Amino acid sequence: MFLCIDNGNSRTKCAVYNVQGEIIATGIFTGDSFSDLYKWIEKQNVIHAIISTTGNKMIDTSLIKLSGKLIDLSHETPLPVQIIYSTPSTLGRDRIAAACGAHALHPDQNFLVIDAGTCMTIDLLLATGVYLGGNIAPGLQMRLRAMHEQTARLPFVEAGWPELDFGDSTLHALQNGACLGMVLEIEGYLNLARKAYGDVSVVISGGDSAFLAGKLESRIFVEPELVTQGLFQILSFNV
Q1: 2-139+179-238, CATH topology level
Q2: How far is 79 from 36, CA to CA, in rounded Å?
Q3: Residues placed in the known binding site
Q4: CA 146 to chain CA centroid, nearest Å
Q5: Rounded to whole angstroms, what are the CA distances from 178 to 52, 135, 168, 189?
Q6: The organism sits in which domain of life (predicted)?
Q7: Which pLDDT tens digit goes with each residue over 164-191?
């Protein structure tokens, strides 16, 4: 069995895959302590593991006992895709994994790879398996919180889809600015990618992926396990 750990900014997501790439078990952990994570891992029959860390909380790899290989993903880890990025050491590990996952699940296609989590990352991956890079923007909750916390009078509102494209109230104006703004941002980047590379599809993952995907006009592949699937591909490639 292969253990894939996506240690992000707000949560740690784990998935156990078999050799065929099928998910056997999953676990999601929050908080500052990894004690529940270590206990969960002990119950899984895993041989090899890979960890991708994008947040500040570090997992103690010495507490993960395996008979096989344990990879702490870095810019030096051999990958099944080619990374063209001027500062590979600063490239988010989740972005690397998402690109590998997209290429494995949908080979021979150009993709805009979107991770709609704490931040929204939008990356361009060619059908040849070449990762060109991308952009980072505030995620949905970050946008909603920032408009409230960084102003004197704007309230905090929940995400939503007003019926009007131009809000007729402060509530609707804030929701459109954050939610519709993200959709238009994605579609704008997609248009740029298609002008440069022709046929480009979209694959989206992350906590807000389902919420956003329904409003995107282009054909969308929603892949909730895109990052862990990419980690599985990297781990398999190295094992």
Answers
A1: Nucleotidyltransferase; domain 5 (3.30.420)
A2: 30
A3: 6-13, 85, 92-95, 115, 118, 170
A4: 21
A5: 28, 17, 15, 17
A6: Bacteria
A7: 999 999 999 999 999 999 999 999 999 9
Pairing of strands 12-17, 2-7: antiparallel
Could you tell me which of 49, 47, 4 has the C-alpha nearest to residue 28?
Answer: 4
* Residue 218 DSSP SS3: coil
Q: Is 236 helix (H, G, I), strand (E, B) or coil?
A: helix
Say how far apart CA 56 and CA 100 lie, in whole Å.
23
Q: Which residue has the tokens 């590990």?
A: 93
Pair of tokens at residue 205: 């993952």
Q: Which two tokens stand for residue 83?
A: 């990374």
pTM above 0.85, yes or no: yes
Give me the residue label for tokens 């099928």.
22
Which residues carry a binding-site annotation for ATP?
6-13, 118
Distance (Å, whole) CA 181 – CA 159: 12
Amino acid at 169: S
List active site positions: 94
